[in-house]
């Protein structure tokens, strides 16, 4: 696995751990300040769009802050890096 894909994989793992441990400051270290994120889907009637690191972290706090234990499991990784973009 090339270096960029490995960095992204590590970020995803750290993201899941930060969510489950509710370590909100750790989330701030995962996302770029201008990060964009979409959670959910219009087809299920729930689409949350965030347009900054602060919005993403705030959304996670609101969504998970009152939850008990959570477990975000990650399986197979398919990461494509194309210049400055990753999918």
From TrEMBL:
Residues 5-86 form the SnoaL-like domain. Pfam families: SnoaL_4 (PF13577). SUPFAM superfamilies: NTF2-like. This is SnoaL-like domain-containing protein. It comes from marine metagenome. The lineage of its organism: unclassified sequences, metagenomes, ecological metagenomes.
């Amino acid at each position: 696995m090339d270096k960029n894909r490995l960095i992204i994989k590590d970020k995803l793992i750290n993201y899941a751990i930060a969510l489950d441990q509710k370590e909100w400051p750790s989330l701030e270290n995962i996302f770029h300040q201008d990060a964009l994120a979409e959670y959910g889907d219009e087809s299920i009637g729930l689409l949350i769009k965030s347009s900054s690191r602060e919005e993403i972290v705030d959304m996670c706090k609101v969504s998970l802050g009152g939850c008990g234990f959570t477990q975000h499991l990650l399986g197979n990784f398919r990461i494509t890096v194309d210049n400055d973009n990753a999918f």
